[in-house]
Amino acid sequence: MAASKILILGGTTEARKLAEALAPRKDLDVTVSLAGRTQEPRPLPVNTRHGGFGGVEGLAAHLRANDIDLVIDATHPFAQRMTPNAIAAAGLVGTPLVCLSRPGWSAEPGDDWRMAKSTEDAVDKLGVAPRRVFLAIGRQEAHLFSRAPQHFYLARSVDPIDPPIAAPDCRYILATGPFSLDDEIKLLTEHAIDVVVSKNSGGAATYAKIEAARRLGLPVVMVERKRVDGAACVATVEGALAFIDHALAPAK
To answer: What is the separation, in whole angstroms, between the first and last Cα of the chain?
Structure first.
């Protein structure tokens, strides 16, 4: 019997772990698609494609042309276009789809979170008075903070922020998690940071900055996730594996 074809829309730790778990299986033909936002992604043990699809119609055409049996959306929780595009494209073709999205963080005692509905809202939440801001939202939307050039920005990302923030006092750090609590406390202290801006991405790799802010009594402007509607969702790689076995089980 021909192997079932799975397309994983990747770019996250969970996508990598899922690909590694599926790689040994002879009953599956797995491809991970990477959008190309990370300049030097680590190699994966399954087929890999790079670049976008050309919107909903382009992805739908790809699903048809390649006889994809199942789509797994394991993109970043803040991938603004890919998730709705994937849901719409899978619906057009009639291909089953599941979203693999790790749970977001929850505020704990001692946390001082100022919730923002979007990155633009997070800029406004900083206020007018100059502040020393640790910007830990990745590189895609960092430029939006150019609207508030009165602040000092310490911006950390995996790849260089381009365009840069149009503010006179910015410092950039290129680094990939996981980050330790001690290192995050040291970073915030050495740069005299008084507010952290973060997306509620969830996961352990970058949580230390949230705990460090709690320990230091710093507020966190936390950008909320948008709800995923129109698709089944699982929170773990194990959940995705169970979904795959159920969705691709032979009909009796």
So the answer is: 15
CA atoms of 16 and 104, how far apart (whole Å)? 19
Residue 74 CA to residue 126 CA, distance in Å, equals 31
Sheet holding 28-34, edge to edge: 47-50, 28-34, 4-9, 70-73, 97-100, 232-234
CB 200 within 8 A of CB 224: yes
Q: In sequence order, what are the beta bridge partners of 152? A: 132
Q: Write the pLDDT tens digit of every residue in 54-77.
A: 999 999 999 999 999 999 999 988
Q: Model confidence over 134-153: pLDDT tens digits?
A: 999 989 899 999 999 999 99
Residue 8: how many other CB atoms lie within 10 Å = 29
